[in-house]
Amino acid sequence: MLFYCVSITPRLKYILDFIGNELQTAPVHLTSSLEEFTKYNGAKINYSDNRITQSEIWIKPSGLLFEKGCKEQVIECFVTNNVKAFFKTDGDFPFDIFAASFYLLSRYEEYLPHTKDMYGRYAHANSLAFKENFLHLPLINIWLQDFKKSIVAKFPELTTHDSRLTLLFTYDIDIAWSYKHKGWLRNFGGMLRSVIKGQWRQVKERINVLRGKQKDPFDAYDWINKLHEQNKLKPYYFFLVADKTGLYDKNISPHCKAMQQLIKDHAIQYPMGIHPSWRSGDDDDLLKKEIDTLKNITGHKIVSSRQHYIRFTLPQSFRRLIDHGILSDFSLGYGSINGFRASVASSFYWYDLAKEEQTKLLLFPFCYMEANSFYEQKFSAQQALEEMRQYYNIVKSVNGLFIMIWHNSFLGTDKLSAGWKEIYEQFIKEIMSAKQ
Question: Residue 422's closest CA among 208, 220, 136?
Fold first, then answer.
């Protein structure tokens, strides 16, 4: 397929690479030669201000892909094919799908002045997806389905392939155990707080766990492994290995032998990545140290990551990951609400808008995290199950990439998360049986 435009820019090349891969058509060749385009007899797209031939799909550019830097964009959403779109333009498709997709994928709006949430993160309420009520949709995938139909209708001889639904289950191990292996000082402090608050059940539970009379409530690892084996799953694990604890870093010390053994046991069976601590977000040397710590424990090079509390700032956070050898990151989602932060259910390479270049960092966006359902959205276990089904079904409808985040603390015996372990198992069994 031939794609014509007057000027070939890094932004245009980037989004065409992504869209070409998603459409799974014949390779897309990019040209700025009017003569080459005119003479070409196969499938072709004209991305310029005027129609050139009748045997083309013409889309008039909105201009975003030929700009440099970031500025406030005039965005007016409208409905087409029952979903929202923007950058309305002339041509054979109702909007500039290339510019609109780039705007969402690049997280353009996150480079503009914006309000931070209580954790200093980009607040989801700033986003176009939230304001226009399409945060719950992988809008780019839906657009591309419609665009593919338009291409095939115009050029029926074009060879196309359908993508396949991909499921990826991931776990963040923020606090490996609730009571065990924390040391006497932390356990004493925790017990004292429980006594002051009159939480006698927790006091008794802590004592029983430390005496070996009861299993730690966060110790769900055997149960999770069995669930994986039964359903032939190969999930990702992200371990927090900060040297020091803090307000948001409450992990077990990576110097603890039990913690090291837990990490080693999982590294043998599953892909593993770093879960950079909160403190490392402000300390580059600390980030490197934590990556090296995990590498030394596992004996493997660490090339994947997910930010603790989904704390990152563009472009600085992703640049630092690249500098330290990280090739794939699983942080693209919100730590305050479930949905599609980049409006896509596909992996894609991060585009550094400040440098105007595609990077080698591959992003894997998630759409569901149980902590969002529980803490932020205040859902019951049954409501969370319905929410998981909703996201799964919409991703399945576009044959996209479905990624979830769970924590071991929700899958153990902690009374706070009673019922969540059961709905997680039910959900996995439902979708796995549907695949057979």
Answer: 220
Helix, strand, or coil here: 334?
Answer: coil
Sign of CA dihedral 317, 371, 170, 263: positive
**Strands of the 2-4 sheet, one edge to the other:** 29-31, 2-4, 44-46, 57-58
Q: Residue 162's pLDDT is what? A: 83
Task: Please report how many Cα atoms fall inside a 13 Å half-sphere around the Cα of residue 330, on the Cβ side.
Answer: 31
Give me the pLDDT at residue 33, please. 97
Q: Rounded to whole angstroms, what are the CA distances from 125 to 85, 121, 368, 394, 421?
A: 19, 11, 17, 22, 30
Give the three-class secondary structure for 211. coil
C-alpha span between 424 and 422 (Å, rounded): 5
Residue 436 has pLDDT above 70, yes or no: no
Instruction: Say if residues 31 and 3 touch (Cβ distance below 8 Å).
Output: yes
Type of residue at 375: Y
pLDDT tens profile 211-260: 888 999 999 999 999 999 999 999 999 999 999 999 999 999 999 999 99
Q: Is 168 helix (H, G, I), strand (E, B) or coil?
A: strand
Q: Of 65, 49, 60, give the one whose Cα is nearest residue 95.
A: 60
Token duo for residue 146: 């419609």
The predicted model scores a pTM of 0.95
Confidence of residue 173 (pLDDT cuts 50, 70, 90): very high
Beta bridge pairs of residue 407 = 172
- Nearest CA to 225 out of 259, 178, 260, 270 is that of 270
| Cα-based angle 221, 431, 163 (whole degrees, multiple of 5) | 110
pLDDT digits (tens, 9 = 90+) for 351-407: 999 999 999 999 999 999 999 999 999 999 999 999 999 999 999 999 999 999 999
CA angle 45, 51, 55 (to 5 degrees): 55
What's the longest Cα–Cα distance across the chain? 82
pLDDT of residue 302: 98
Taking the C-alpha atoms of residue 143 and residue 98, their distance in angstroms, rounded to an integer, is: 10
Give me the residue spans of the domains in the chain: 2-154, 166-178+216-435
Between CA 373 and CA 336 the distance in angstroms is 9
- Reported as a single tens digit per residue, the pLDDT across 85-99 is 999 999 999 999 999
Instruction: Choose from 22-31, 88-97, 153-162, 205-214 the range with maximum mean pLDDT.
Output: 88-97
- Cα end-to-end span (Å), the chain: 36
Is domain 166-178+216-435 given the CATH code 3.20.20.140 in the classification?
A: no
